[in-house]
Specification:
Shape: globular
Structural class: alpha+beta
Helix content: 25-40%
Length: 927
């Protein structure tokens, strides 16, 4: 009875301990959720009473003397009251998308309007821009406007000059067709477009300011200032008379003062300048760099990032780490380098740290409860092992993950620096130093030399698309007169001939020709870079070529890898724990030996086997363990072989499009609809040739043909959907350029292929190719015991017919308008328009293009020489001017007698001219 009493007493104690553990676990979960939401506050001490200003880029003033600044490399907004206290902070979302705060404006009710630029996943191309409003206490109020990016703007978008005038918010949209003004009436909540104008010829918008026609001013990339009149015409105001033609002065940050004069930052002088049109001396300095250095000693940099005009005639000048308040006439008044935390902000900070301390105390209490109380109780040793070792192993694996990640991140950064150094060093062979020397002033923007540099500075990258560049940027600097200037940069906000500081790295490149790499942080972000010299034809160093990458993007990619490491470590941890628990329960004596073997298996050594000599249950366990490892090895080999074999019959891309992991997940009826580029490639006159071959020779020929040309499709991210006897049909899911590149590669490879056939006394073969884009159904058809992938679409049938038509038109690569219009830069290819073709059975004519880049040299040169003449003839034909069209095609045929399309048009023009056309003729070419 006494023993039973002890057991009865122990049971409630255990239940009491479990209850307390549950309460502690729930409390820890709540505190953890709170700390994750306030994780940034753990980066500073609760004893810190001020917030230092750093990496500032934009400034705005409120109606009651508040200051609003964009800081932290465009990731933070700080609102500072007139008393110097921090009112609130706004940070960017932590969702893995790169966003930059770009501009600020404040209305009469202290509501903040923010222009936010959303970049691609690599932090380079602008995806969209939003105008968002925050309440007077910093709470998100509403998103007022969103503008999708054009896919070309880099780091800054098309929305400019966010301004408040009275009860209206205005900004401008810079487009290739001109500049549009948008206005939001704050009280009514309505939008309108009060004004629009076009830029003068060969002028490229840089910045714009103003709200009313006649008082709107803008700067161009060539360093000029224009005033826009009410009728939309532009009047040049700057440079003023008497300025040297080779000036490097570049005006930025346009604003007006109370007297109507223009203020701007002269970037070459780093001075705040006033422009008074019509005055005897129109240019005067408001604040020069010497005055700034005197007023703000110890600043990280004296470069003017932004400024604001004060009501009393003074100005606020924004430096990268401070705000300089200057009175009328440039007299220094005060400098703001930090903001005082408010009482509520400090209380919140203490609350965060108290929560962290409470979490630590709860963890200690939980550990003591587990290891001191519960483990002393009489219950299953198996459960004790779980309670004691599961947390220990989990924490160890977490520490291991962090250790792996830290080592990996450091290696990745070092490797990136090495790769960037190689890229930067290649710049001396790519950038034309002579062209760089010929650039003398911002007025040379977009001239032939500048465009040559701009085109060649990115030649090391795979392409201009975001996915191709992977966030890599490039910059070209010119060294002139012992000064370094930015000439071209992958940031549309950086203007030509912007002075750049000569630091130790730059001097080592310019003076010693070294290649340097490193990283830095400024108001535009965090960067990793490499720089190398640029030489002219005489071997003189005339500039610097820089390439680099957004460091935050690299960190984000590393975090994705870290997440993967954590997931894999978690899976491995579960396996280790499972094996550990089983072996502990059945075989304590052989624990170490089995643990070592399991550790080897989890490290990927599937050849490891355990050796246990005892002839009992432990020995049997060891034998079964070895059998399991052998089965797993064999299973892995079988699965690998099966997967590799299945990919030869069903391409892996098909599984991807259907959302399946592999062939085992595919079921009858699985299908997906998608817009894709279809390419049909066939051997012309194949059936005539096959009649002369035996069945075996036919099979050997087709296998040889497909094995030679099929890889060219896959190289361009294409998928061969089906073989069509005399050729194949392939799909390209993303870009028409891939299909055209593959077609050109096939035509060029055909020349080599026919050369080999000629050596073996085989007749040459010819290939017709047609490319079209449209919706199609990709899926699995058949029956339960016999299935295959297939493509169903009228557009596939149309593409097949177009391939058959290509020979009649004398075209090797025939591309439809629906495909060609999606090409980002069609001028990269040699092609010409064939006009609208009416196919029998088709209600709507098809506009076709002849891509002749893969034609034989004689044909290609003839088509290239007569391209404009041929397309002029097509236009005349479509207008019904058959005589003029006939004469035009005669000229084409004189130059290119092999041009079948020109001959076909010539015969039709002659017939229509002689006999007339049908009543329903609509300008198409009927074939």
């Amino acid at each position: 009875m006494k023993t039973n009493g002890k057991k009865a007493q122990a049971a409630p104690n255990v239940r009491f301990g479990v209850l307390w553990l549950t309460v502690i676990a729930l409390a820890l979960a709540g505190i953890a959720y709170y700390l994750i939401a306030r994780a940034d506050d753990l980066n500073r001490s609760p004893l810190q009473r001020t917030l230092p200003l750093a990496n500032l880029s934009a400034l705005a003033n409120g109606p009651d003397g508040e200051m609003y600044v964009i800081s932290g490399a465009k990731q933070q907004i700080e609102a500072i009251g007139p008393d110097g206290k921090l009112k609130y902070r706004i940070g960017q979302q932590k969702d893995g998308i790169r966003r930059n705060f770009t501009e600020l404006a404040v209305d009469s009710r202290s509501r903040l309007y923010v222009l936010n630029t959303i970049l691609d996943s690599y932090g380079l191309y602008v995806q969209s821009e939003t105008v968002t409003r925050y309440s007077a206490d910093g709470k998100l109020d509403a998103q007022l406007f969103e503008w999708k990016g054009d896919g070309q703007s880099k780091r800054v978008g098309q929305l400019k000059a966010l301004q408040i005038r009275g009860d209206a918010l205005t900004f401008f949209i810079s487009r290739s067709s001109g500049v549009q003004q948008k206005r939001f009436l704050i009280d009514s909540g309505k939008w309108d477009q009060p004004f629009a104008f076009e830029l003068p010829q060969d002028r490229y918008l840089s910045e714009i300011y103003g709200t009313e026609p006649g008082q709107i001013y803008y700067t161009t990339k060539r360093g000029s200032i224009y005033q826009v009149a009410a009728d939309g015409t532009s009047k040049p105001l700057y440079p003023v008379a008497g300025m040297p033609p080779m000036r490097k002065n570049f005006p930025e940050r346009l604003k007006t003062d109370a007297g109507g004069s223009l203020l701007f930052v002269d970037r070459s002088l780093n001075a705040l300048t006033r422009l008074t049109p019509g005055a005897a001396d129109p240019i005067s300095l408001v604040l020069d760099e010497a005055a700034i250095e005197k007023s703000a000693p110890g600043a990280d940099s004296f470069e003017i990032a932004d400024y604001a005009v004060l009501p009393g005639g003074g100005v606020q000048v924004l430096l990268p780490d401070r705000i300089l308040n200057s009175g009328p006439g440039g007299a220094p008044a005060s400098v703001v380098t930090k903001a005082d935390y408010s009482r509520s902000e400090r209380m919140d900070e203490w609350l965060v740290w108290l929560a962290a301390a409470a979490a630590a105390a709860l963890l200690i209490a939980a550990s003591r409860l587990i290891f001191v109380h519960l483990l002393r109780r009489r219950f299953s040793f198996f459960l004790k092992q779980l309670v004691a070792f599961v947390p220990l192993i989990a924490v160890s694996m977490l520490l291991l993950s962090n250790s792996i990640y830290n080592a990996f991140s450091k290696n990745m950064e070092d490797e990136m620096k090495r790769e960037l150094s190689v890229l930067a060093q290649s710049g001396k062979y790519i950038i034309d130093g002579n062209a760089l020397e010929r650039l003398q002033s911002p007025n040379d923007f977009m001239d032939a030399d500048y465009q040559s540099i701009l085109q060649r500075m990115n030649v090391l990258f795979q392409g201009d698309q975001s996915s191709d560049r992977r966030g890599l940027y490039s910059t070209v600097y010119k060294y002139d007169g012992n000064k370094l200037y930015v000439i071209a940069d992958d940031d549309d906000s950086v203007n030509m001939f912007k002075p750049f500081e000569l630091d130790e790295d730059n001097l080592a490149v310019l003076k010693q020709g070294q290649v340097r790499s490193g990283s830095w942080e400024d108001a535009s972000g965090q960067w990793i870079f490499a720089i190398a010299p640029v030489y002219d034809s005489k071997g003189k160093i005339v500039g610097i070529y820089e390439t680099g990458r957004d460091l935050t993007v690299l960190e984000r990619e590393n975090k994705q890898i870290y997440k993967g490491v954590i997931e894999k470590i978690a899976a491995i941890t579960l396996i280790v724990l499972l094996v550990f628990v089983v072996t502990t329960y059945f075989l304590l004596a052989s624990l170490r030996k089995l643990r070592r073997s399991v550790a080897e298996i989890t490290n990927g050594n599937w050849d490891a086997e355990v050796s246990i000599r005892t002839r009992d249950e432990v020995g049997e366990l060891g034998e079964q363990f070895n059998v399991m490892v052998r089965h797993i090895r064999q299973y892995i080999r079988d699965i690998t072989a099966f997967s590799e074999a299945s990919f030869r019959f069903v391409p892996q891309q098909v599984f991807k499009y259907l959302g399946k992991r592999g062939i085992l997940d595919v079921h009858l009826g699985d299908q997906v609809q998608q817009n894709m580029i279809v390419m049909v490639s066939k051997i012309r006159q194949f059936y005539e040739m096959s009649k002369r071959l035996s069945p075996k020779e036919n099979f050997n020929f087709m296998n040889s043909f497909l094995s030679r040309f099929g890889p060219l499709v896959r190289k361009e991210n294409g998928l061969i959907a089906s073989y069509m006897g005399a050729g194949f049909m392939s799909l390209f899911p993303s870009r028409t350029e891939d299909a055209i590149n593959a077609a050109i590669a096939i035509r060029k490879e055909l020349v080599v292929y026919n050369g080999h056939r000629a050596k073996a006394n085989y007749p040459p073969v010819d290939i017709g190719i047609a490319i079209h884009k449209g919706p199609l159904m990709l899926g699995i058809i058949g029956e339960e015991t016999r299935m295959e992938s297939n493509v169903i679409s009228d557009d596939v049938t149309l593409t097949t017919r177009l391939e058959e038509l290509s020979e009649q038109l004398g075209v090797s690569i025939l591309v439809t308008h629906s495909a060609m219009e999606t090409v980002a830069s069609p001028e990269r290819f040699q092609y010409r328009s064939l006009g609208r073709i009416h196919l029998g059975g088709q209600q709507t004519p098809v506009e076709l293009y002849d891509v002749y880049e893969g034609d034989p040299e004689a044909v290609r040169m003839g088509k290239d020489k007569t391209k404009k003449l041929f397309e002029r003839g097509v236009q005349l034909y479509q207008e019904g001017r058959f005589f003029d069209a006939r004469e035009t095609f005669v000229e084409v045929i004189k130059w290119s007698r092999l041009d079948k399309a020109a001959k076909l048009y010539f015969y039709l023009c002659d017939e229509y001219y002689q006999r007339g056309t049908a009543v329903d003729w609509n300008g198409t070419l009927a074939v």
